[in-house]
Amino acid sequence: MYKASVFSYLIIHKPQDMALDYIIWNKENVSASTVNKRIVIVLKSIITHYNLDSNFSKVMQFKKMKELGLSYGTIENNILRKILKYTLSLPDNKRNGLMKKTAVVLLTYTGVRMNELINIEVKNIDFEKRELLLTTTKNGKARKTYIHDDAISILKKAVDDAIGKRRKLLLWNNTFNKPMTQKAVTYFIESLKIKFNLDKLHPHMFRHYFGTTLLDNGVNIKVVQELMDHKNLSTTQKYLHVNDRKKKELYLNNFKI
Asked: Which of 52, 144, 163, 215 has its CA 20 to 30 A from that of 112?
């Protein structure tokens, strides 16, 4: 935002201007919820650091931005089946085919977050116990998830590939010979959105599908909370949206007089 000399001058002599510019930049570059958090942080920090009263007239004019409700859009079953069928048909050795398969299968069958996905280590996959240890998690605590029958064959191929090439990480960008990044996985998911002419498709929607499917099929919400690593049960409850067709089916089959 500023050259070093100008930045040094402003931080010493014009903290209000610094705060103002910082908030404006955030409004243009990050989400409303993030802006709101940072407005509070920057005000507290500057006021405390400079021992000022809270009469920051220009900065205080920034009211909190309206935060849109989170969209918990998921993927329709028929679309997911098409995505899996297409992805699993890709050649293993062309354009990271095996890695694309592995990423989509793990997103679908474990509901892992993107950062958890790209940091899975080969040593933490136990086929005998059907367990997968995630060590890079949102809350910093390692947790176990489980390996579904439909994920085993692809996962074993990926593990063999990693062991054969003496890699620590499961996912690897063979094209550039470096660890797979969130950006690379997102790029592939974006290509699937285009291929299947979808309005939206992003990696986190696989996680939504995972949670919603478990709840729709009667899995206890506390179990789903643990599998998804939600700190609060209220987060898991947001996945309790039952589609209209299923609501009608449940009503017609279960309401008896």
From this structure: 163
